[in-house]
Amino acid sequence: TGIVYYNIDNSSCLAKCPDGYYGEVSENKCLVCNETCSKCTGPSSGDCQACATYNGTTYFLEYGETSCVETCPDGQYSNSTSKLCRVCSSNCKTCQDNARKCLSCLMDAGNYVYLHNEVCVVNCPTGFYEETSNNTCHFCADGCKTCFGETLKECDSCNTSNSSDSYYKWANESTCDTSCPDGQFISLRLSYMCEFCSSNCVTCVGTADNCT
User: Fold this and answer.
1) How far apart are CA 204 and CA 43, in angstroms?
2) Rounded-to-integer distance, Cα 147 and Cα 156, Å
3) What would you measure as the largest C-alpha separation in the chain, in angstroms?
4) Which of 5, 82, 189, 209 has the fewest CB atoms within 10 Å of its CB?
5) Cα 176 from Cα 141, distance rounded (Å)
6) What pTM value is reported for the model?
7) CA 166 – CA 179 distance, rounded (Å)
């Protein structure tokens, strides 16, 4: 009939070996899978169709592969119910629990992609700066609306939304402070900005020529 029957435990002849065994044609026997496999096509750890829990360790089948691993590779996450490695969403270097919960990010077409609230973004939102050492979005300092680093000397613009104090950006500098330095005054026409006093004023207030 063309059907091969396999002997298991020298007691039964089966048309198909049960889970945990594979059919060895040359001997017409059902032989035990590798301990990491719950289903297999051969004896090695690279012949798995489904994975097992062995010695208290749960193994997962790599996506598109026939190997069972303790930890899914980068770009995949483990599903404990199916014991499968599933693919992370695009730009996630690593993810956890589901495809969209990113733990780290890849580069996209030569641009860094940054991790923000478990999502990979090309640009960090307002109030955050791009930390290239670990591809994450970090909070700007209190008083910075936009920034390129973590201190009050690395601000692009200032605001009061995340502070009880008012901060002002020093003229021609990247510093935000609660006051302007000597030679500058708090602008009445530009929000949260300092402007230069006139050249004959050491200090001034309100306008460039109103020396104090």
Assistant:
1) 85
2) 5
3) 108
4) 189
5) 9
6) 0.69
7) 8
CA atoms of 18 and 30, how far apart (whole Å): 8
* Per-residue pLDDT tens over the stretch 150-186: 999 999 999 765 557 889 999 999 999 999 999 999 9
* Amino acid (one-letter) located at 171: A
Distance from C-alpha of 7 to C-alpha of 15, rounded to nearest angstrom: 9
Whole-number Cα distances in Å, 52 to 19, 63, 84, 130, 148: 11, 16, 11, 42, 48
DSSP 175-187: -EESSPPTTEEE-
Helix (H) or strand (E) holding 139: strand 136-139
Q: How far apart are the first and last CA of the chain?
A: 108
Question: In the numeric block, which tokens belong to residue 33?
Answer: 């899978």
Beta partners for 211?
204
